[in-house]
Amino acid sequence: MSLFDKTTSALQTSIGMRQVRQNITSSNIANAETPGYHAKKVDFEEALARAIDLDGLRGMSTSNPEHFSVGAKTAKVRPDIYENPEGAINNDGNSVDLEKEMSSLAENAIMYKAALQLINKKMAALKYAASEGR
């Protein structure tokens, strides 16, 4: 039995992916004036949803060792990082939209802080349970 539940694991994974998104977005902003630079984009929401299994497939089990296992518990979430196909290319070959990148950076920071606050609340609840249960 694990001390941390599925929600804590999902929040931990989300924080890691938010850090990746922060790095990619910061790189895009830093290269906004670099000729020929193509903006990168990070998508991890679908991979995260698969990892935490919103559809309930992890609840399935096998009755025979020869059956395929469903929903491995050690699934690693990897973000998809690719060149942003939505970006318009400037005369110098650069595809960074500075306003969109700044907006993305702000949104990502808010989501990162929210995930941290949720983890802090879960840890505070565990601490309370441990200290009151003497």
The biggest sheet, with number of strands, parallel, antiparallel or mixed sense and barrel status, is: 2 strands, antiparallel
What share of the residues does DSSP label as strand, in percent? 5-15%
Rg is 20 Å
Spell the H/E element sequence: HEHEH
Which consecutive residue ranges, at least 5 long each, have pLDDT under 50?
70-74
Number of domains: 1
- Pairing-aware structural class of the strands and helices? mainly alpha
Portion of residues in helices? 40-55%
Number of strands: 2
> First CA to last CA: what distance?
21 Å
Principal-axis shape equals elongated
Strand order of the largest sheet: 1-2
Mean pLDDT: 80
Description of the structure:
α1 (6-30) runs antiparallel to α3. This protein has helices at residues 6-30, 45-52, 98-132, and strands spanning 40-43, 80-83. Mean pLDDT is 80; it is low at 70-74. It has one domain (6-132). With 134 residues, the protein is mostly helical.
Question: How would you summarize the topology of this molecule?
Answer:
Elements: H1 6-30, E1 40-43, H2 45-52, E2 80-83, H3 98-132
Antiparallel strand pairs: 1-2
Helix pairs in contact: 1-3
Short structural summary:
With 134 residues, the chain is mainly alpha-helical.
Key descriptive features of the protein:
134 residues, 6% strand, mainly alpha
